[in-house]
Design a protein that fits this description.
Length: 326
């Protein structure tokens, strides 16, 4: 009912009376008022004037479940949405949903997080109205050793999404960071549950800096946002919708072929690590070498003075020679 009233307000260029809304939807005037109050609590700017009725002031920055649902144009991803104005972590909530056997493509979105985390349990700043904080539940029919490829595939899709909205060259720092102008704009956290060799589910957590106007001193030289790059705000719901469509196409193509090599050339073009000297942190030991390639399994091929290693993302931290992450 709330969404029906919202649509009536959106389709009216002038005030629309509570009586007209009530008659159209066969509800009481009190029911109209209750739903109008709910819409206001969801962020909609609605004028209420005695003897005139209600008028919706359009605002493209409104971010809630209804607006996200109306923007999405996919077959599977995002058809079931859980939205929160604030939550501890979308990934943690997704884990709770797994026990309810929710369908693949279930989407959890938050306007802010109080305990957002990135890879290796690093904090992810998740302030209200600034970024995109989402988790997508997947149930891929692939072998466990291929799980890294889901992260890499998401990276390709995010790069294409951000470039679509910014027209700025967007790159990937293997395995899970998205980079613009040598600064991090997005992180990916992939968590799984598996039994022996079979994957039960994958939670793909994504944080994108969208409308952040500044960062703390510790991050200002390491992080950026779409707003800082363009000096204008972009509607987060549109970014989410574009990403879901892009990733859905890539994901199901990958699941059908069960072969990441069909995306490998595209990934290599986006990866900033290839050809660079760096160091990996493995079992608290630093190994210095050079990333010479990416394998068809999504591993980095790492050349040291004495050896050539195929390195899986879950086993190491990859850093620049000076110790920085980017």
């Amino acid at each position: 009912m709330t969404e029906k009233i919202l649509n009536m307000l959106k389709n009216s260029k002038d005030f629309i009376s509570g009586e007209k809304i009530a008659k159209s939807l066969n509800i009481s005037r009190a029911g109209v008022w209750k739903n109008i109050s709910k819409l206001k609590s969801m962020g909609y700017n609605i004028y209420s004037v005695t003897n005139k009725g209600y008028l919706l002031v359009e605002d493209d920055t409104i971010f809630n479940k209804i607006e996200i649902e109306n923007e999405i144009n996919t077959f599977v991803f995002g058809k079931n949405i859980y939205y929160f104005n604030e939550i501890d972590s979308t990934n943690e909530y997704a884990k709770k949903l797994i026990n309810k056997d929710v369908e693949e493509g279930t989407l959890i979105v938050a306007n802010s997080q109080t305990n957002g985390k990135g890879r290796l349990n690093r904090q992810w700043i998740s302030n209200k109205n600034d970024g995109i904080f989402l988790s997508l539940i997947l149930k891929p029919d692939i072998e466990l050793f291929k799980i890294t490829q889901i992260t890499l595939l998401a990276g390709i899709s995010i790069c294409n999404t951000i470039k679509y909205f910014t027209n700025i060259d967007t790159k990937i720092k293997w395995p899970n960071d998205i980079i613009i102008n040598n600064k991090k704009i997005c992180g990916i956290l992939t968590e799984i549950s598996a039994q022996i060799d079979k994957i039960s589910y994958v939670i793909l957590g994504i944080g994108i800096n969208v409308n952040n106007s500044k960062f703390d001193v510790a991050l200002e030289n390491k992080a950026t946002s779409i707003f800082l790059e363009l000096n204008k705000e972009i509607e987060r719901k549109k970014i989410i919708a574009y990403f879901l469509e892009e990733f859905e196409n890539n994901y199901f193509k990958y699941i059908k072929e069960k072969d990441f090599s069909i995306f490998l050339d595209e990934y290599k073009k986006l990866c900033i690590n290839i050809g660079k000297e760096c160091k990996i942190i493995y079992n608290k030991k630093e190994i210095i070498g050079k990333v010479i390639d990416i394998s068809s399994l999504g591993e980095i091929i790492f050349k040291t003075d004495n050896d050539v290693l195929n390195v899986v993302s879950g086993e190491v931290s990859l850093r620049n020679i000076d110790g920085s992450y980017i």
